[in-house]
Amino acid sequence: MMTVSQEMLKLYDRYVDWINGRVNFTVAEAVEFQRDFRALMVKVGLMELGVDNKGIDLMIQAAEPGSNVVIFNKEKLARIAARARDGGAS
Question: Is the pTM higher than 0.70?
Answer without folding.
Answer: no
